[in-house]
Design goal:
Length: 238
């Protein structure tokens, strides 16, 4: 399909895009690293965002030369974050309105997150009326069908299949992401992607190897509130 053809299916990332959990992650990881006299930087954080927990931990161990294994680091992080911790997460600006828009126009939605299922359940403890509009959720942290975490396209292709809709194709699917790893995964899956990065993310595209065709499927916004559905063949917001 062309860039102007209507999208028919929507897949959202969760952390840092729809809810404020990235702040919690940063606080907990910063506290843990301080034990080893290390400082958690955005440069490292952006390498971790969107990945499965163990994959992210392996990167942290290597980046900071930590004297523990990725599994030990993962276990320590999980010991510091309880379901109640995630209950503090709040919806980010524009998330609820976007869900209402897509729901009112009959576009099925899914969430595709690198978290494990119990974490997603805890993160979605509040705002049940928003999450009830989802068709399904894919948690790559413990979903056996998702073999590789972002930036591999696996999670988005699994999410697409689970719409159980013959008309659902990568080219008419729109992914919303805040992390470049997730953006790369969506683009690799052949989907169109809306990127809402952290304010600290430099301008430009991190991967200079991307083709013009691939770049044409990417739209960068500063907030979900900035989303213009008419750019994706959809009716304007009221």
């Amino acid at each position: 399909m062309g860039a102007g053809d209507p999208v028919t299916h929507i897949i959202f990332d969760l952390d840092g895009l729809l809810i404020s959990t990235e702040e919690i992650y940063t606080e907990v990881i910063s506290e843990l690293l301080s034990k080893y006299e290390k400082t958690y930087t955005y440069e490292v954080k952006r390498k971790l965002m969107g990945r499965k927990a163990l994959e992210a931990a392996a990167i942290m161990v290597k980046e900071y030369d930590l004297p523990i294994s990725p599994q030990e680091l993962t276990d320590e992080l999980h010991s510091k974050i309880t379901p109640e911790t995630w209950h503090k997460a709040t919806l980010l600006p524009g998330a609820a309105a976007l869900f209402e828009y897509f729901h009112s126009h009959g576009l099925p939605m899914a969430v595709a997150s690198g978290s494990v299922s119990w974490e997603i359940e805890a993160k979605m403890f509040n705002n049940k009326e928003v999450w009830s509009k989802l068709h399904h959720i894919v948690s790559s942290g413990d979903d056996p069908e998702v073999k590789h975490g972002k930036p591999a396209p696996d999670i988005f292709l699994v999410a697409l299949r689970r719409f159980d809709d013959p008309s659902a194709e990568p080219s008419n699917t729109l992914v919303f992401e805040d992390a470049w790893n997730g953006v790369a995964a969506g683009l690799a899956a052949g989907m169109r992607v809306v990127w809402v990065p952290d304010k600290r993310e430099p301008q430009g595209i991190p991967d200079s190897s991307l083709s013009q065709e691939t770049i044409s499927r990417l739209t960068r916004l500063t907030s979900l509130e900035q989303f213009d559905p008419t750019l994706f063949g959809l009716p304007p917001k009221r």
